[in-house]
Design a protein that fits this description.
The protein is α+β, with helices and mostly antiparallel strands. It contains 4 helices and 5 strands. It has 2 domains: 121 residues, FAD/NAD(P)-binding domain, CATH 3.50.50; 33 residues, no CATH class.
Length: 163
């Protein structure tokens, strides 16, 4: 999950909370409407711009970015092979990223109807209702953001034993 994307959406929810509380502080806020498409477009453009800046800074520092699937080799010097080409350097950083494990419908009926947290950032509109499965910080954050912006949200937490 893109941490910058999450921060933008968290800030959006904070603004919604402030607007909700304006009346308590004497501000009259007639009919305020939220537009998901606007924040999605602006957020995506912001992240693209920052990614370009970061990549340009890496290039200016004469650091090579090699994208692909890699593995360490048995060579005597620190060597990694990426898609058939070997790279040797005194220091090698492997930024693995992460991918969620999505169960099959045979494991959990209906699993294919869901989406991962990455799918949250691809939503074209705010869902009227949402169910978030998990209890990690990303699940709780997404549930809070969606709820604050107007999606009727439920958070499901698995328990291995009855408490």
């Amino acid at each position: 999950t893109c941490s910058l994307c999450g921060q933008v959406m968290w800030n959006t929810a904070v603004h919604a909370e402030f607007i909700h509380d304006h009346a308590d502080y004497g501000f009259e806020t007639p009919s305020v409407k939220f537009n998901w498409r606007t924040i999605k477009d602006k957020r995506d453009a912001y992240v693209r711009r920052l990614n370009d800046i970061y990549e340009n800074n890496v290039k200016k520092a004469r650091i090579d970015i090699i994208r692909g699937y890699g593995k360490f080799t048995a060579d005597p010097e620190p060597t990694i092979e990426v898609e058939g080409k070997k790279y040797t350097a005194p220091h090698i950083l492997i930024a693995t990223g992460g991918r969620p494990a999505v169960p099959s419908d045979s494991e959990i009926p209906g699993a294919s109807l869901g989406m991962t947290s990455d799918g949250f950032f691809e939503l074209e509109e705010l869902p009227r209702r949402s169910v978030i499965v998990g209890a990690g910080y990303i699940a709780v954050e997404v549930a809070g953001i969606l709820s604050t912006l107007g999606s009727k949200s439920s958070l499901l937490i698995r328990q291995d034993k009855v408490v």
